[in-house]
Amino acid sequence: MVQRGLEKLQVWQEAMNFAEWVYREVVPHLPSQERFALQTQLQRAVQSIPANIAEGYGRYHYGDQIRFCYIARGSVEETFTFLTLAHRLGYLPDAPYQQSMQAVERLKQMLNGYIRYLRQQQNHTK
Predict the structure, then answer these.
(1) Residue 6 CB-density burial (10 A; 0-12 exposed, 13-18 middle, 19+ buried)
(2) Distance from the Cα of residue 28 to its chain's centroid
(3) Which domains, and CATH codes, for the chain?
(4) Is the entire prediction scored with pTM above 0.90?
């Protein structure tokens, strides 16, 4: 399978891996009564991270790419909030919660690094 440019982007790969992990390792812990509430919100938030990175990647201007990375970063924080709520409500055990917090921190660092890179590229084209 040949990888496209987006598929080579490490921050996108990390975001996809995290989204898949949330679906496989977190969602099953949520009770059925949360199916249309917390579960749906969590899934939308975690999906939004790689989706916004991808949308920015597909844009022509660095400013657009940076803006979509900021949106992705907001979705990371939203995902953090839903994971923390699930943990506080006793739905998510300590081990997967701690693992998710490490992934959240790594994604934020990677997104911040990618934003810095895009800004440098933007400044070189001026």
Answers:
(1) middle
(2) 19
(3) 8-24+34-124 (1.20.1440.60)
(4) yes
